[in-house]
Amino acid sequence: MLALQAEGASITTAEGLREHRIGSVLQDAFKACHGLQCGYCTPGMLAAAVGLLQANPNPTEDDVRQALRGNLCRCTGYEHILDAVQLAAANLPEEASA
Amino acid sequence: MKPETAYSGELAEPEGWVGKALPRREDDRLLEGAGRYVDDISLSGQLYAAFVRSPHAHATLRNVDCSQASRAAGASLCLTAEDFKELHEVAPNWVLPRSTPRGRPILAKGKVRYVGEPVALVVASSPALARDAADLVEIDYDPLPAVLHQDDARDVGAPLVHDDMESNLAATFAPGNGGFEEAATGAPFRTQFSLRNQRLVPFSIEGRAVNADYDPVTDRMTLYIGHQIPHMARRMVASTIGFPEHRLRVISPDVGGGFGPKMHVYQEEAVCALASIRLGRPVKWTERRSENVCNTTHGRDHAMHVDVAADLDGQLLAMRVESRANIGAYMSSMGSGIPTVNVGLFVMGVYDIPNVEVDIRCFYTNTPPVDAYRGAGRPEASYLIERTIDRVALELGIDQAEMRRRNFLTENQIPRRQPTGAMIDTGRYHHTLEEALKRSDYEAFRAEQKAARQTGSLIGIGIANYTESCGIGPGQVQKLVGFDRGGYESARVRMTSDGGAVVFSGSHSHGQGHKTTYAQIAADELGISPDRIDVIQGDTESVPQGVGTFNSRSVAVGGSAVKVAAGRVADRIHRLAAHLLQAKPEKLERDGDVFKAPASNTSVTFAEVCHAAWTGHNVPPDLGVGLEETEFYHPTSMSAPYGAHIAQVEIDRETGELALTRYVAVDDCGKVINPLLARGQVHGGLAQGIGQALWEDGMPQADGSTVLDTPLPRFDMLPRFETSHTVTESWTNPLGAKGLGEAGAIGAPPAIVNAAIDALWHLGVRELEMPLTPASVLDAIEHADAGGEP
Ligand code: FES
Asked: Which atom belonging to ligand 1 lies closest to the Cα atom of B206?
């Protein structure tokens, strides 16, 4: 989305994800799965993944691929990011993802 | 010497820290948005640069007028080539003996030679004002005929990119042992074909950036550059602008991907440094994406031809390779070496071919300069030989796996120097191939393919037994080929008085994870946990010297330096502990963090020994005060990692669309330091290799402009990868490591194109060109049908 479209909304960036239930589970999963190399694409990947898991707590591999396809990564080949998002989904407490 | 360890399949649980799949310690910061890349660094008094670039591929520069721009709102400086007494030039660092180097002028003078070449610089108080002011620079051009392709550039009468040369020929290289004609004439089988290794745009997600901070009070300069080789950046900027190296500091903070282009110095770094000197204030430039694709170096771009002779069993007898490389408008840093030495030496791959001749010619064209991109020459070489193996096999009706078995170098031929000059330290090619065949269910696939042919569906399988020579060195060899830099790497290991360690590494991560892997290596030597070890890199002021991160050399060479330095420190700690306990070193026992002298029943802790070394209160003269060691590790030979990659594809006969259905990679990089990170390296390389095979094409448009309108690999475009290792340790370094960073990018293109041709051969398709777009595949199918071949 464009910044203008966020008018009036509250914004969480990567700096605030530790405080975010889904975000912090994702951060741990990205680290466990080596879901980042240079780290440049990582804040965007995390944000897109938070959005996905909020809407869909049990995504299939294809769901993850589709939800994150707008974010380019030139380092990882995406597979470890895929693993990370699925691990985070598995680790999320039921109520957190509701 | 023979490899000492030979292991295949899943990696065994290691005893020490080396070999463990530790998650990375660099991740926390990056995950919390606290990564610090060059553009994140703003200094007091910060100014911003924008460049005016040529819209023409080739034109005479009539007049550059800065008068409007210098007066624009917020503008403080406008520079053109006329503002410098001498013509500063970014000179190439690798100048092949038979070559005609033409470096990049830091701002174009007299002529522009490619779209995107910087002509003027504007500095202003914000990035937006700098761009606005840049629009006011007025430039008169007289367009000239341009030449974009190497095969046009070599024509007699072609427009000359450099008027002072007689032709566009920039370099030639012809390795091999000769004897092709004698061996090929009258050979039972002979074939020849052409192939293209297309130009690619490396495209790190973070572009290049520089923040040049000259301090007029101290007459010192600090340059923040996201770079693969900070020490090389220092040397290149210093020599380009004539600033002394000892007063120039380069800091490379977090680097958002490199893949080759970030190991050079370009015009922008030099011009920003000169602007900062003139203004006495920091000047920052952050590349825009459109600038990245037209001024940051491209990769590959070879037009190749191979002529090969074999006997009827498929045994190769002789091969002749011709390649014409497009190196762009100027000779970039390694621009004469990558397409020649890095290709020519490796065209024989992992095979035994008695007679080989190679003839490589490099041409200047009106395109952005071409230089190293992940694999850097070896993808071109591997593509050529792996496609050749398949071509001969298919023409002779020999299974492609069997064709490889018949031509592999055998274990008792290795170590070996190939007739082209490539050094092979280890190789169990049969073993690695069989492992990959098993994992990809090769035989079952062949049966399935037979059945599929009955129903008309098109599936194919392709093999690539790539090799990537790594860890360039020793320096003497580099000298022979005109490569003016070292083959060593430095590491300094310094203990702190509380028993911790700091590793200073000359090699610098741009995503690889040196902070984790180097700590693992040092931890095993020192006998402490990696948590007590920090790794410092990317600052010329704290790191002794660095040759840097490229050529998959960081673990094999840089890691070996860490191992050797840490080993020497550990030895000193041991001897000092013995001295403190008044025991003989060999009688001393170590139990975790405690040294014990059983005879006197006394003990001292690891931290106490480190403390004692730094106080110097009780240190014997032969050990000396302090506790640090520096190693410049200089390998005696390169190593040659290799692997067997197998791709399976399915092609839609109606649309030409290709689906990559499976990808099996078995890599042999010797000792694996961290399997998790190793897998990440393979994945990243594969994505780029698959991108080359299927989608990417960086060739400029007809007007010379580089517009990236072919897709880059996205999340939903890649299959899951099936990766594993065979482990054949190298004897060329104390770690037994070889290298892995470029494996995927080298293996994937030939594996995939071989698979596609395997799927279509029975229709009469003989050749396909990368990228395998649906249109090109469909075209090949249709023309094959029309030609009525078998
Ligand atoms: S980790 Fe480097 S771009 Fe994704």
From this structure: 3
| Amino acid type, B339 | P
Report helix, strand or coil for B505.
Answer: strand
Could you give the CA distance from residue B465 to residue B408 in angstroms, rounded to a whole number?
Answer: 9
Tokens of B328: 């762009």
Q: What are B374-395's pLDDT values in tens digits? A: 999 999 999 999 999 999 999 9
Distance of CA B299 to the CA centre of its chain: 10
Protein residues whose CB sits closer than 6 Å to any atom of ligand 1? A 36-41, 73-76; B 205, 257, 511
User: How confident is the model at residue B785, as a pLDDT?
Assistant: 65
User: Has residue A46 been placed in a domain?
Assistant: yes
And the tokens for B743? Answer: 């494996």
**For B494-507, what is each residue's pLDDT tens digit?**
999 999 999 999 88
A78 interface with B at CB cutoff 8 Å: yes
Give the model's pLDDT for residue B555. Answer: 86
Same-domain status, B372 and B392: no
CA dist., res. B531 & res. B528, Å (int): 8
Question: pLDDT by residue (tens digit) across B465-474?
Answer: 999 888 777 7
User: What is the identity of the amino acid at B239?
Assistant: S
Domain-ending residue, one of B633, B656, B689:
B633
CATH of the domain at A31: 1.10.150.120
Model confidence, pTM: 0.96
- Using a CB-CB cut-off of 8 Å, the residues of chain A touching B258 are 38
With CA atoms as reference, report the closest residue to B276 among B221, B232, B231.
B221
- Point out the domain boundary residue: B359, B376, B393: B376
| ipTM here | 0.95
CB atoms near residue B760 (< 10 Å): 21
